[in-house]
Amino acid sequence: QAQLVESGGTLVQPGGSLRLSCAASGFTFSLYAMSWHRQAPGKERELVAAIPSFGGSTNYADSVKGRFTISRDNAKNMVYLQMDSLKPEDTAVYYCNANRRNPITNRYYNYWGQGTQVTVSS
């Protein structure tokens, strides 16, 4: 059974740094694109950063470009989000996502973690 488990969320002061981790299991991690999303209270979930299955070109929301870095380790089935220069508006629950479309069957696979809370406040 596919599972994603996020960790690393905590309370941090503005300007601080934090690294989120997501441990994947139950599926062939290296075949999946991975991404981080976040949802603040009263707001819709939004894409923060994404990385394709074998690394390479990454994508970021405009609001985090230059401050956040997504990376993955296919040998460890892990994906990370390094967050620097954190702002109060980064406060949200952060979710890990794995997705893939099977090129043979066209079946779409989409998995979510349970989320980890990041609070940026003095």
- The total beta strand count reads 11
Name the beta content range: over 45%
**N-to-C SSE series?**
EEEEEEEEEEE
> What is the overall number of helices?
0
Please provide a written account of the structure.
- With about 120 residues, this protein is mostly beta strands.
- It contains no helices and 11 strands.
- The strands form 2 sheets. Strands 2, 4, 5, 6, 9, 10 and 11 form a 7-stranded mixed beta sheet that branches.
- Strand 7 and strand 8 (about 80-85) form a beta hairpin.
- The radius of gyration is 14 Å and the shape is elongated.
- About 30% of the residues are buried.
Annotation keywords:
122 residues, mainly beta, seven-stranded mixed β-sheet, 11 strands, 0% helix, elongated
